[in-house]
Amino acid sequence: MQKVSQQQLIDKAVSLLADGTVSCVLGWTKGEFDYDITPALFTDEASLRQGFVWNDFCGANFSKYLVAKTRKCEGKILVFLKPCDTYSFNQLLTEHRFDREKVYAVGIPCEGMADIDKVKAICGDGISSIDCNGEKMAVQTIYEDAPVQVDASSVLAERCINCKSKKHVAYDELMGDEGDVIDSARFDEVAKLEAMTPDERFTFWQNELSRCIRCNACRDACPACTCEVCVFNNPKSGVENKSPANSFEEKMFHIIRAFHVAGRCTDCGECSRVCPQNIPLHLLNRKFIKDMNECYGEYQAGAEVGSRAPLVNYTTDDLEPGEVFNGRDSDA
Amino acid sequence: MQRIGVFVCWCGSNIAGTVDVKAVAEALKAEPGVVFSTDYQYMCSQAGQDMIKESVREHKLTGIVICSCSPRMHEATFRKTAAAAGLNPYMVEIANIREQCSWVHKEMPIGTEKAIILGKAAVAKVNLNTPLTPGESPVTKRALVIGGGIAGIQTALDIADAGFPVDIVEKKPTIGGKMAQLDKTFPTLDCAACILTPKMVDVAQHEKIRIFSYSEVSEVKGFVGNFDVTIKKHARYVKEDVCTGCGACVEKCPMKKVPNEFNLGMDNRPAIYIPFAQAVPKVATIDPNACNMLKNGKCGLCARVCTAGAIDYKQQDEYIQEKYGAIVVATGFNPISMDKFDEFAYNQSKDVITSLEFERLTNAAGPTAGKLLRPSDGKHPHTIVFVQCVGSRCDSCAQKGKEYCSKICCMYTAKHAMLTRDKYPDTEVYVFYIDVRTPGKSFDEFYRRAVEEYDVHYIKGMVGKVTPQGDKLKVQASDLLSNKQLHIDADLVVLAAAIEPDKSARPLATMLTASMDTNDFFTEAHPKLRPVESPTAGVFLSGTCQGPKDIPETVSQAGAAASKVIGLLAKDKLKGNPCVAHSNEQMCNGCSSCERVCPYGAITYEDKEFRMPDRTTAIRRVAAVNPAVCQGCGACTVACPSGAMDLRGFMNEQIMAEVDAICK
Amino acid sequence: MNVSYFPGCTLKNKARDLDRYARQCAQVLGITLEEVENWQCCGGVFTTAKDEVATKLSSVRLLQAAKAKEQPLVTVCSACHNVVKQTNHAMQIDGEFAAKVNRYMADDGEYDGSTQVYHYLELLRDVVGYDTLKDKVTNPLKGKKIAAYYGCLLLRPSSVMSMDDPENPTIMEDMIRALGATPVVYANRNECCGGYVSVESPALAKKNSLAVVEDAKAAGADMIITACPLCRYNLVKNGADIPVVYFTELLAEALGLKEDANE
Amino acid sequence: MNKSYLQEDLLRMSGVNPRKCMQCGKCSATCPAYDEMEYHPHQFVSMVKNGDIEPLMKSQSLYRCLTCFACVERCPRSVEPAKLVEAVRLAVIRQQGANRMTANDIPALLDEDTPQQLLVSAFRKYTK
Amino acid sequence: MQVKEFKPLIVAFCCNWCSYAGADLAGNNRLNYPAEVKIIRVPCSCRVNPMFILRAFQRGADGVILCGCHPGDCHYTSGNYYTRRRMAMLFSMLDFLGIERERTRVEWVSAAEGAKFSAVMTDFAATVKALGENKRLEDLRCKK
Question: Which CATH number is correct for D5-95, 2.40.370.10, 1.10.1060.10, 1.10.10.60, 3.40.640.10?
Fold first, then answer.
């Protein structure tokens, strides 16, 4: 259960619309299923009351939508930001991707989002409705009479288990506390891979990446991927490719994508959330973040507006490319 | 589709000895776009070049590949050839089959195979070449000289004499710099003031020169030929154009206990002051930290005695904007602090002084009117010990001094020793040295005179400890040649303090995007062949800001910098390097990544209106590269996430085509 | 504040004054000196040879004992301080040395160089603060002209000791000032008294000691203070004709503790 | 010149790089024991550098160095001559029977004020 | 049956001001290195996009080496500092994916270091040769 209720958010949005602070509201709405939440733009009270949704499945990070929406919207847009969304929000501001003046950001606390696959693992398929408002999540399936009561903490998404921060780093208004940065174990999985032999790592990634169907969902959801023209869509870039022709293409796409967002990725986890093949793409980004933290000092993209990312910075005594392996296991 | 001609050079047997040039020419004929391929003994010869020109006309070539020596050798030659044949010079690519092929491989089949691959890569690149034209930018015909010491003075005079206007910015109230503080100059012993002050007057009277004294550069924008500079003129509380320099205010000022920086604090000056009699501009300056009127509104004596009405207690700092075509850095040096060398008791005794202080003590206009007297008790010193290399030639681990040799100390110490012995023959003079370094015209002769004619005691060894005791300075030192530890009761100890660049140099370098070494000396564009230019185009170096120098060297470098500036200002337009970055506005995100890595500040952003794919319009922030500032490194192209930034002449597509050709 | 305290051999014997006054003053200044249990001699001098391990073990044990209590380690004797601090430094920067040492540390636990080592003077300056000290003075030593004698071990090598400017130190002068007396600055205050060479060449020790005393006297001192028993011994033995006392004694006097101590 | 084993050992023990020395003589200038030494600090540096170590090992100079670190502190090149002197001294007293001082020497050295520190230090310096 | 000797394909990106000149100097001094090394001239090591390196591997290169001016000596003052960070991160990522870390290398070679250039290339070619063919990153379609 989230600390701030859907009703509170709707009331907030309605009042901000009514007093003219904002002209539209970027929010979540229900899709095909209760857990299938998609972003939507609301412009009046009626549609808000009818369609606005806020529950444990509202994982979508809205920061990215601001790039396109602020260009179109007259007046300000109201956006609700979870703590992790605010980092993307700041990062996009650092990159001048939207006009801050055109946004009214309301920070909302987040208790973590649920992973529907984990719910399904408990309740099975055929979910007809989910009620997240109680102490426990009530999952109704077409096969059972009574809803199954699921502990929300047992179906938390990976990125929420390893949540790096409950702190709102950008907002005009807060509903709840500002929150704190928290110690997370988010690099443990990366470290586990690092401890493997190169052959094991190769097999691991071969397994994962060979499932890629090049649907581009990771790119399309990624708040760092807001390029006007994506290199993968640009015939002159030399890497344009619509579908994975072979195992190399899969790797190439993901390496290039990870490199492109290195230093800019806030580790929001959207890539893995949206991947239909459940590839742990966030591990690639986290690997870069971990390396950069270790080699060039702690850096959190989006923690502040205007900060200089490690890859567009240097010191004269940085370690040499060959030295990044020093001190790591010499398994090669 | 390009029509490419391939020309394979034998370079006599240099290439042909290891590479089957005919086979190379033959193989490359089959490459896409190639319509003509041939070989010749010496492609760079007149006959070879004529053949290229002829082939361009005959085969209507649009691109040329020369398989020959390194492009670093003849790229310029063949570009000219292409231009003479009516082709754009940037439609030429060189395959380096000599230095990087025939000369490093021994067997013909291997050499030939590699030469073909290198040729293919060049062909692949030329297929994507586009004609490039260097950009042109106008030149503002005015120079800025930062620093008004002898280096800045000489540079300014030389530029101005060539007919170009020059502004000098000097942070002190007067120009003259360190040389104005010196007594005599080695090796000829003319008086520094006698040779410097006429030059200062020349500067003051030159119709092409403006002096901004008591001023600093606060902002620099723009690029070679087009610098926009903001100069901050500090309030001196005296109207410069009204003050006659009569000195009545200086005489009447009641606050007379301000340490006189011109005499390095060895005597005092009033709160309103003219640094020295020959100051240029000769106008008074009020020291706001000392003046009672400015501090608490009580006094106003100077305003009352000033018949010209020049005093203005309400004066504010003034900012002046000016455009310049070239900037000369002449920020000079200072002796280092002696705080970390207190084994020599500099902080414990007034009679331990630096060499620059010694200059003031012997200068007729100094605190003792030229009489060599001890600062502590005004007595004539009978035993003087000079210590060389204090803070110079130190190991970096010692973290005390400088690693370099300060270069001027050996000579000025010989001068000090000689002059002392000349004027006061009853004085014993000891010089402790590690090495005596006197390369320079008449320098060693000068030093030998000090030893042989003036009987200065040169002792190889170092002073280890100076102990002030009573009115003596007990000097404990080693004499390495006689293998003894010496104990000398000295009256005066003079330390040859290392010199370091002025502290203002580092922030200035940042403003100019000019590079510095770890010692904060400005680096040259090339240490041997371009010693007076900074790597940043349009920024030139004069004097000790570039490295330790004596006066003759400084003056010659100042003249050299001036001639470089004149050469630049004489041009009406500057032609740039066309191989510069450019941004595809359609693809640019305006994210600033490129700007962050650009070492030249060549990238700016502007808001532009674009038609979006959905037929609406939107205003987006996009990058724009100033081709006159961009030097073409390409750092931005990799920082750019969208690939909007590309480098002309080395485009992503071109380099990938080369990769493909090599890996095929 | 509680700190681990290492008196060292001489302070238990010939230099009891140095120790006793140090403890009494610390108490008044709000610092509790907890004497390290079962301590051994520091080793007397620090052997600079990198391969010398055994002679440094007692210092390492000392440091480890303080670390175990999560306390800084305080010494009063200049020589002990020098040995302990240099050993600690070697443990920090010389991995090979540290590895060798730790082979002998099975009983005490491995030591990593993390203990903070203070000289008592640093404690006064950096922890208590000279302003606070000044406030606690009950018997200002007005009119006394006192020469601080640093000797060699307290300041050098400065890259390791990093207590004060090695050529122009102020830590003792500032203390003297805080106690109400007038410090006398003289050039030889950081020159060696002759140290242990007095067993090998008494003449050398005498020459050096007298140079110090003469310099201090010439600068107008009527008393010399020191932190080192060996310095005091050499200076006194070689004919100092002004009093040479431990700095803690002066401290005790100014804090009004000296009479009690003499009882 | 071939580096002798002894020379290598001395450099390793002391951590001193005598090649950094520029022969300014400041170490000897500042040495308080200079007059008692046959070979002076700068000579230790140059002689060890040149492999001329035997004379140093025989010299009384080894036992005159106060280890007061004045030379270390004031060396403009960070050569640290005192560490080299110590290394040579150790090379001597580590040899069998080469102890400079024995327990029998002590009574003669004692007076009623002799601090323990003096004996301990002297023993450390002169005895293995 | 005689097995055909494996000859690795090596792409070397060299900055125009130092390493390319260093390679020329190696030539001037006739300092041999394996012909498998093919040099591509770039203005500065910082011009090398990770995509070029991946492209080379894709097209069948067995090793890619990047050479630039020594840190501090960059003709463009700071280019190689960016290169150093970018390549450190890229190489670490390739290693993370299980691709042999020895196939990629960065070396700083000045215009005066002809001998170093030759030695570096000889060593790198031997290292790559010992690794054998690049199988983990190549695009099979691009192989003959």
Answer: 1.10.1060.10
